[in-house]
Amino acid sequence: MQSEEARHFRLLGHDPSAAFGSGSLVEVVNGHAFVGSVGGSDPDKTEGFTVHDVRDPRKPRKVFEFKAPPGVHMHKLRYAGENILYVNSERLKNEAAKTARSGFYIFDISNPASPREIGFYDMPGSGPHRFGVDLKRKVALMPNDAEGWNKRVIWTLDIKDPTKPDVIGIWGLPSQKTDGAGEGNDPQPAETTCTLHGPPIIRDNRMFAAFWGGGVAIIDCTDLSSMDLVGHVCWSPPFVGATHTACPVGDKPYLVVTDEARAKQNYRDSQFMWIVDIRDETRPTPISTWFPDRDKYFDRGGRFGAHNILEAISTEGPWANTVFITYFNAGLRAVDISDPLRPAEKGCYVPSVADGQKMVQSNDIGADDRGLIYLIDRAGHGMHILEYTG
């Protein structure tokens, strides 16, 4: 048994049924949490998503579930505005996937407890992975295969009418450009392949994107239909790649970047959180790293390493200069980056593990307009609803 660890976090509620026990991305809309299931790598797990009434965070309850068709990996979902939810449809690596439809589902969630499928947007290749939606600019940013490119690149879609997405442009790193169809599908080898992971994040006229083994790109997106590379940095090698998320820090000239810990091997000296200085956008420069106590967590079982963050880092308000990051078997961490050269942990939450259960694998986080945090586990521990007290 592993006891709960809580510092500057308070547990309000817990629902073990989230995403059939194998959770990934979470969105909270109109008092309901929508949780995608990472399913696919385990034949005993279910693909799809679940919906939970969280209006009373102390008593969350599942009110809806949607199971994916055979051969479909359905683990990423985003609110697209106007009571519309997008849910990815990515092909798995099995026989059923050969006839599976790739792209994303469009659901009407005007009744959040009973989503209604109203459309599907077809995309080529294996389908989109971790995508983003920018509600302010009314665009969706999809990592997906494309003709003339190797591996996943950025598809920018106009979603002013979220029921009828329209392509604005397709862009990748110059090294990804190729003649003909190009190479698609999942990154192979997993840590070194240059492929967009996502989601790309826009600040003003700059887009920031993580390209797995291909590093981090700063992109001029003044014209979303014709974007240009401004700066690029890649630390793989010598560090192991899998660069997952690149997020600007408020209006400061810094990025927070995570390298995802992979399932097959843990690394003591790779796959952590970076701070990147972008004062000179043409030469983004890593200036510091952060990770929790390796000696405490490294050998606990499961993945040890970074994954995702709350994808909005503010320099004002109660969460100013705070990164909330999931770290798989080290749970959720709150990291103070007010001094970007010396990130410092100021809180953590690691759920308890009963005898016979798999080790915690904190995978994703979301937040609602009440300031509550939703921690999602991929190894059977469900959804924990937390209040940050730091």
Task: Write structural notes for this entry.
With 390 residues, this protein is an all-beta fold. Helices cover 1% and strands 41% of the residues. It has one helix at residues 294-297; strands at 5-7, 9-15, 23-29, 32-37, 48-53, 61-67, 72-73, 77-79, 84-91, 103-108, 116-122, 132-134, 139-144, 153-158, 166-171, 201-203, 206-210, 216-220, 228-233, 243-248, 254-259, 273-277, 285-290, 322-326, 332-336, 344-350, 362-367, 372-377, 383-388. Strands 7, 8, 9, 10 and 11 form a 5-stranded antiparallel sheet that branches. Strands 1-26-25-24 form a 4-stranded antiparallel sheet, with no helix packed on it. The chain has a 4-stranded antiparallel sheet with strand order 2-29-28-27, with no helix packed on it. Strand 28 (372-377) and strand 29 form a beta hairpin. The mean pLDDT is 95.
Helix fraction?
under 10%
Strand residue content = 35-45%
Query: Average pLDDT across residues?
Result: 95
**What top-tier CATH class fits best?**
Mainly Beta
**Overall strand count:** 29
Q: Would you tell me which CATH topology applies?
A: Methylamine Dehydrogenase, Chain H
Cα(first) to Cα(last) distance is 27 Å
List segments where confidence is low: pLDDT < 50 over at least 5 consecutive residues.
none
Major beta-sheet overview: 5 strands, antiparallel
Structural class: mainly beta
Q: How many structural units, i.e. domains?
A: 1
Write down the overall geometry: globular
CATH architecture: 7 Propeller
User: Compute the gyration radius: what is it?
Assistant: 19 Å
Number of helices: 1
Question: Strand-and-helix sequence, N→C?
Answer: EEEEEEEEEEEEEEEEEEEEEEEHEEEEEE
Query: CATH superfamily membership, which one?
Result: YVTN repeat-like/Quinoprotein amine dehydrogenase
